[in-house]
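Form 7-S
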Amino acid sequence: MKFGRYLALMASTWVLAALAVAAFTLLVDAIGISPVRVAIAGFNAWKPLRQDYDWIAKRYDVWRGQPATIFMGSSRIKQSIDPKLVAGTAFAPAYNGGINGSAKFQEIRAYLQDYLRADKNLHHVFIEVFAPVLFANPQSATPLVVTGGQAARPPVIEFGHFADISDFGSIFFSVGGLGSAIRTVSMNRRNPAAVSFEDGFAPIPLAPHHFSVKNVFNFVLHTGFMQRGAVLPSAPMAAARRMIEDCNRHQVECRFFVSPLHADVLLAAYHLGLWPELEKVKRGLAELAPTYDFTRYSRLIEERTGPVVYWPEAFHFSAALGELMARAMTDLRTADMPANFGVVLDSRNVDSSLAAWREERDQWVAQHPESVARMRKSEDDFRNGVSFKTVTDAEIAAGGW
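Output:
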């Protein structure tokens, strides 16, 4: 064979192989953004890798679906608020824009700006306020954000045509993209009945125990999730104000909601001296826009023993609680919901609401001396250098888990 023919054959082989790989990855569509919209049960109908690439997939979904309402926030929102709950209302169609690890206002604003540009049908945006994540401690690094994702999101999210082309190429025309397609097919073959959620909602099975709820005080201290001396910096409130301005320019209603915190998390914040900072969050938001408050004390935030209904663990609540939140925010309240659940804060009532919250806290603390004692012991153990495993093992051995 002549050398020229050999080179031509080799080049043709490589081109055909590349085309075959591209066709395969486009058909499998591992994260649901391919223009080839073919779903085959047992082959590619389930997108198990999709939720780990939210920063790509969800922007594409919004552009393609043009929802009227978007719920934005962290993995807490992603796994708990089902957009189908508002079907048939003025808020439909809705989309769950929750993204693993996305709780900082500065990052949420970047996604919001992209959604406002891409979605011409957008009328309502609800933005989660995961209050402790907004705090900063001058003596520590950025606090841990509890997430459900596994894929590493880029440290700086870039939007624009160049970024879109880069993302598209990495998913469909790379070795990694081929690997993702192969994994997707393999997992579909093992679980052919599984289905993907096209509206951004990704519920997870409830855990059979309350590990993080029972161990919340140790968890908070050992991870540095909340620390004494933490403060609310100016940047989050500035970003919140800009989000309101962004929405106003596009004639989109923007509302915030302070997402639920378990009663033990609230106790930890109070014990660590962070209560005034929590109040600053609520006050600052209430002065900007009507804000739904889901942190008031009620039966909904006190669950500790099974069967699990609302709190599979301390920082992620269930779809059952998310349903109540969605109903409160979209005028679908039911009679069984506590009156203070999802109360709307504004500049006129924020003072009285905060006073009522403090009174509820004081009553709860007085009624739960055992929780106060456990919080104090947890901090003493932490200061004395007792390891997380040791204190956890001791609490498990003590029973009640």
